[in-house]
């Protein structure tokens, strides 16, 4: 079989790249050994956000009396939660299949291996293509400790498929995955303990914001052990760790390993073709090209920015370069520090651009404006005032260069800042942009003023 482009992996980066390539008149073969939609749709973003929504509803009902509504005695059916999650995933997976059903795209099922720079073997079938895009994603990075692979220790995929809520849940790692699951399962009724090696949770988030978010979650009953190194997990699921020279332990009914993700670069034939890799993943340039010019790598597998929307943008970037050597629409923001991100905890958190620590390390001359939701009319009206915003701008020209925050609808606010940054907007310009009253977004204009 011959085609213009071979895409290995049908996650958000792969399937959107296939769709865009077909619209540009290219023939595409896309290879997937598991479900269409990749980790994000099947075992990551979407099913996790289904659980986050369930947790949000539960939290609202528990707090309903504050609004004059009595919800005493409501029941929680976790089986129905899992059924709803499966329905949402199935609907979206069918949507991806429909998207890839156009005549220019051929779907092949199975594991792909590079034979050379233009040839891929898929379960005994050979495909030749002028270009190849590797979009194989990532998997859980397991701690190399005693007891890590025993029954009762799961990764995010395993936790998403449990049949009942664990009474005691110990989460190893306070990154995005760990914090989101901590928030959800605490709302579901689990006693949640988080053990983290670093000084603060969510290292990609501004440390001031991360600390306040962690303290807010601790008030809801989640227990944190920071600067703690896990040493082993006993057969009866006791997590043993050291904190400042003292050995401590936590007993659990289920342990979640949430210590990051590692790119899927094995068994692809990269060595055969001579594609360079590092510990972070496949090396690429700003157009997502590997050192073999006709082969590209997008998404988690290149380790630049492990977010679904980043993979999508990188896929469009790669196909645009294949077609004409130019970005498809303007200059896509594919640099990791310019990609907005959200953490769907309760309260929510989000960011775009560098944190204050990063700005200091880079020697950037900046100004920082702070805002709080407790002074926002909409936040007060909806009874959701726990939150803080940090907005950064260049001290030279006032251009907005970043925003880190936690609080209600933090992701939507970060998205507004992301759009402003893409257009090189300044604090002065933001101050003149009329915001609907009352809205949470007014906090940004107040800070700019």
Helix content: 25-40%
Strand content: 25-35%
The count of β-strands is 24
Domain module count:
3
CATH architecture annotation name of the largest domain: 3-Layer(bba) Sandwich
Low-confidence stretches: none
DSSP helix count?
14
Mean pLDDT: 96
Top CATH class of the largest domain: Alpha Beta
Relevant CATH superfamily of the largest domain: FAD/NAD(P)-binding domain
Task: Give your account of this protein's structure.
The protein has 14 helices and 24 strands. The chain has 449 residues and is an alpha/beta fold. It has three domains: 2-140 and 262-323, 3-Layer(bba) Sandwich (FAD/NAD(P)-binding domain); 153-259, FAD/NAD(P)-binding domain; 347-448, FAD/NAD-linked reductase, C-terminal dimerisation domain (Enolase-like, domain 1), CATH 3.30.390. The strands form six sheets. Strands 1, 2, 3, 4, 5, 6 and 19 form a seven-stranded mixed sheet that branches. A five-stranded parallel sheet has the order 8-15-9-10-11. The longest helix is centred in the N-terminal third of the chain and has 22 residues, at 78-99. The mean pLDDT is 96.
